[in-house]
Amino acid sequence: xxxxxEQVRGIFDTAFEAATADEVELTMAWYHEVNxxxxxxxTKVIRFSNSYIRDDTVVMPCHPLQVHVAFGxxxxxxxxxxxxxxxxxDAVARAEAIARAAAPNGSHRPLHGPEEYxxxxxxxxxxxxxxxxxxxxxxxxxxxxxxxxxxxGSGYFHVDDTLEAHANSAxxxxxxxxxxxxxxxxVRSDATTGRDSSRVGSGWAAVGDRxxxxxxxxxxxxxxxxxxxxxxxxxxxxEMGPHTxxxxxxxxxxxxxxxxxxxxxxxxxxxxxxxPSEAGARVASEHLSLSTQPGHPQIMGSPYGPGGxxxxxxxxxxxxxxxxxxxxxxxxxxxxVGDGASKSLEDVIAGVDRGILMTQNWNTMLRTIDPPxxxxxTRNGLFRIEDGQLAGPLENAWYSLRLDEFANNIEDASRxxxxxxxxxxxxxxNLMPALRVANFNFYRxxxxx
Amino acid sequence: MDITRRQFVRxxxxxxxxxxxxxxxxCAAPRPAHELIEDVEWKKGLADAALRVTTSRGSTFADxxxxxxxxxxxxxxxxxxxxxPGEWHYGSSPEHVLEKVDIGLNxxxxxxxxxxxxxxPVLSEDEAVAVAGLACDLAxxxxxxxxxxxxxxxxxxxxxxxxTPHEEDPFTVPLDEKVALLLRINEEVRKNPQTDRAFSWxxxxxxxxxxxxxxxxxxxxxxxxxxxSFFARARVDGVTAQRRFFVNPLNIGYEYIxxxxxxxxxxxxxxxxxxxxxxxxxxxxxxxxxxxxxxNICLFEHETIGHPTELNRTVxxxxxxxxxxxxxxxxxxxxxFGSPVMNFVGDRSRPxxxxxxxxxxxxxxxxxxxxxxxxxxxxxxxxxEFATYVGEEASRGCCMTESxxxxxxxxxxxxxxxxxxxxxxSPEELIADTRRGLLFRGFSxxxxxxxxxxxHTYTGNAVWEIENGRTTRMLxxxxxxxxxxxxxxxxxxxxxxxxxxxPAALDSDDxxxxxxxxxxxxxxxxxxxxxxxxxxxxx
Lengths: 449, 539
Known about the structure:
The complex is a heterodimer.
Chain A: H1 5-18, E1 23-28, E2 31-33, E3 36-38, E4 41-49, E5 52-62, E6 65-71, E7 74-80, H2 85-101, H3 125-128, H4 132-148, E8 152-168, E9 173-188, E10 202-210, H5 218-231, E11 241-247, H6 249-264, E12 268-269, E13 272-273, E14 290-292, E15 314-318, E16 321-322, E17 336-338, H7 345-350, E18 354-358, E19 361-368, E20 373-378, E21 382-386, E22 389-393, E23 397-402, H8 403-408, E24 410-413, E25 417-419, E26 430-432, E27 435-445
Parallel strand pairs in A: 11-18
Antiparallel strand pairs in A: 1-6, 1-8, 2-3, 4-5, 4-8, 6-7, 8-9, 9-10, 11-27, 12-13, 14-15, 14-17, 15-16, 18-21, 19-20, 20-23, 21-22, 23-27, 24-27, 25-26
Helix pairs in contact in A: 1-2
Chain B: H1 5-11, E1 17-19, E2 25-27, H2 33-36, H3 40-56, E3 61-77, E4 80-81, E5 98-111, E6 114-120, H4 125-143, E7 159-163, H5 175-189, E8 195-213, E9 218-236, E10 239-245, H6 255-260, H7 266-278, E11 286-292, H8 294-306, H9 311-314, E12 344-347, E13 368-373, E14 376-377, E15 399-400, E16 409-410, E17 414-417, H10 427-432, E18 436-441, E19 448-449, E20 456-458, E21 462-467, E22 470-475, E23 479-482, H11 485-489, E24 492-495, E25 509-511, E26 516-518, E27 527-535
Parallel strand pairs in B: 7-9, 11-18
Antiparallel strand pairs in B: 1-2, 3-4, 3-5, 3-8, 5-6, 8-9, 9-10, 11-27, 12-13, 12-17, 13-14, 15-16, 18-21, 19-20, 20-23, 21-22, 23-27, 24-27, 25-26
Helix pairs in contact in B: 3-4, 5-7
């Protein structure tokens, strides 16, 4: 069972009683370690490949307790997933031992007091109550179809029942249950492996971070990936150089994520740090508008922000002008929604006389900060556009461009869609527009599929 | 009212009962899991309870792991001890300065030809029984989709205890001693006035794993890992550059950290950071001889040999995220990977290396095997399941799980380039023998590669020009690249002598959905590649 509010208060009370530090901050929430995401709650995963289920897994509820303490500005932290009184006291003692040994942190920030948080319901009882049979059935259905059609499918479907709780010695308190589910699938036109696979068609589709399983159309998502796969067979070479490119929302999301980091000053490469842009500056064409909307009905995200500040709606970019600089007191650029446009992805494609549709990309990274140079490559479906219509598959390719020029070259945008990231566990689920971008530079073809 | 033993145990918080005189019974004081985890007999009891269920349910194979991971990470950013941004590392980075305790058990079942897996952080007999039943349920459902039953190659039954050889438990070393070490390193770095930041860290793991399976294996292991290093950052005329001191992460105790004398290297690393900031950007594009040190080869071999020879990638198991590979299972024994001096050995048994343990996570005794011999692909990384894909009769022992809540997978072992013979040149002789070329030292995450590992571009943490057998000046922005690993490895011409071989390793590696980390060593000597394509970052 997921811990109730009363149970969490009891655990936190044990920790507070054990602590001797000046400041104590307690957290039970999803957290990210490098190369690993940790769910606070239960997680159930079906992972399939070669069109059969490989991993059908259930991890029973686990509630890692994060203890942060400070003596003055000497800080320490510990995590434990053992919530018996001895385990809790042990974690507090470990955190305090680190804090006593630590050198002062000059950027230590004092704890915030109690805050009012907006009510954003993210818990769906029906999703939390899904039986294993109910989870299994839709996946088995798509696998049956993939097998019948001779297609090679690989997918990841997760259902999480999670808890987020925070408290500190300054009196802050927050508790919230949320469900989270997502599905990502790669379909290949056949099971050819190795160097002979460069003519295989491959398609990917995903929906991430939905609160209700009822909103996750597993057969429909698989159909999208299948269409892309069958449409990608025997891709053709194309001329390297600048093209007009339509990026589907998931492909656009990786660029928008980098842009937000660039504007916030948090963009980094090895040993190099960016500087924030100034509010009021024009940072993109008028077709780009972005805001944070935790309460958007398709997001329903946590209203608990960094440092315990309530996370509300905030406009970042309005018609290309940076209204607020992400980060710091403005809060992080999370729960993103691309605003403004009403046209569909198909409408954006229809507006292109000659160009390329990028459905997904991979390894899009900042290579340098100044200038902000990005490269990466396409994956799982690249298509030629002629007279507003898709006109056949193209070979994958590497691209290289300046991120600031990318933003200014946006010529059109769609309404926002769920844009699951090509990630590992959470898939995310920001609402991103499709973008039409001029002078998008491809520089090297790739045989990888 | 009578209560069953199981109910009684549950009432006692999963701990044993104590029988008192005169027939009275009371609960023993509950022992917390972080203490019970040291009790092997208790863990056997949990495993037995789970395996009784899986056997009674008709599984063909089942295994149980009871795991405790203890992790300590301490980082110093100049003179502050605090969390750090991730770009300093290639993989792992201490986002938090912390100690972490993570305990739980899992049960994996092969039933009706399919896998099922369930896990729990609660360590009790009742929970083990429940988790085992759940794993069976899940396997039965998965089996409805499996066209051919999954088979396992056989493995002898092992009952054993294995502990990483170490002298000084890193978790018993006082924290203030570790903090003082890091602050001193940073202080030494910042004595160079042209540095503007120093960053150092220590990272320790203690993995306590009990493994049992339905064939009778019972294996208790403890893996101890020690790692630590530092960076210096310089800023000269608006140019920022960082230089890392590369420590080879090992499975060993704190005696390793003591022996490194990390502060003694700070002055050189700081000076090289400054030299790097002042260095010109490479203005050459074409073919040159390239000399690599072991830490530069480390990432190169991880990406060009390691991932491509993961058999789970080869057979499209990782297609939905990590990707596949340019190799096919049929390539074994025939694919010409590189030049005749290219010899790669996979292992999980060489002392102190990161992936080294006694047994893998499905009870296979660890070993050493050829992956590339004289340039030809001769082996893959296999588990008891994946060995069947290449017709082998035994696993190479590459089944791993990072923690109790992650399903076991085929993962990359230690994978190392072998040195030349005793008559091979030393690193100094290799450079002296190079008329014109580039020397790449240390790895950098600024690499470019596709998801089938066909195309590759690499750089180094520091790059020097070689002219007439001597390193002359540093260059910034230099890369080497090739359209496929074979093209790169066919240009391998010389590897240095055995004394120059080092157990280089990445900080971390990940795979799977959800992802899990991995530790492995990619040892190497120094090596020279003839006429590699080199150029600037846009290559």
